[in-house]
Amino acid sequence: MDLREQIEKYTPYNEQEEKDKETMLKYIDTFDDVLTRNNEFGHFTASSWVVNKDRTKVLMIYHNIYKSWAWTGGHADGESDLLGTAIRELKEETGIKNVKVLDDNIFSLEIICVNGHVKRGKYVSSHVHLNLTYLLEVDENEMLKIKEDENSGVKWINVEDVEKVSSEKWMVENVYGKIKRKLMGEQ
Q1: Are the CB atoms for 109 and 82 separated by under 8 Å?
Q2: pTM above 0.90?
């Protein structure tokens, strides 16, 4: 199933997802290159909400650019298999080797504003990430490893403490909180 079909098939959880789904589909129809950073207005990314077996903890990284504890994820870089992108980024950013996919389908979607920043010595203009999130499970006893060029910490965080450790207010309120509620079966 191609990217457009996956997004069309996705049932939005709330109003934010309804609007973002609609915008993502328009974006795919409007731009030729939505899977690489060559599209400087915005491009698709994939993230993971990585839980332990008991669903009591989330694996997070301390993101060097955002200076905050955050989920794992990254750019599609031309790859249309965004679940594969989410898994690849999780492994690269945490050193994890074994990943259990809890659902092959999109778990959450959101359009995220990215402020201009310097990456690898070059300025990157402000743009948006059209993000698809996938639900993954990892054994919390597996060895973790920092990816120094992207993060300066990797650790398991109690689900109820995510709001306390992340300094990205919008992400906490509109993404992490939403994903937690969805995972707990709340509306």
Answers
A1: no
A2: yes
